[in-house]
Amino acid sequence: MPMTLAEIEKEAFTLNNEEKFLLIQDIGASLTTSQVERDWYEEAERRVKALEEGRTSARNGEDVMNELKEKLVFRK
C-alpha cells in the first residue's frame, strides 16, 4: 500500500538538512516541464557547484545592477 502524504511528510522531516535539500531539488526538477525551465535549473545547479568549489564568487545583485546602469549611462 502506498504511503499517505502525512506519512511522507513525517519521514521527510526526519531527514538531515542536506537530504531535505536534495529531496526538494528532485521534487522541483520533476515539476519543470519546459526545456527553458530545465535549462535554467541546470544553469543554476552549475553556478551553485562553481560557488561551492570556489571557482567563482557571489556578488550583490544591487551592486551588479548599479554597475550595469553606470555602464549604460556612459555609453550615450
Largest beta-sheet characterization: none
Q: Tell me, what's the shape? A: elongated
The number of E-state strands comes to: 0
Q: What is the mean pLDDT? A: 87
> Low-confidence segments, ≥5 residues, pLDDT <50?
none
Number of helical runs? 4
Question: What is the helical fraction, as a range of percent?
Answer: over 70%
From the alpha-carbon coordinates, what is the Rg to the nearest angstrom? Answer: 19 Å
Structure classification: mainly alpha
Strand content: under 5%
Report the end-to-end length measured between terminal Cα atoms: 67 Å
Whole-number total of structural domains: 1
Order of helices and strands: HHHH
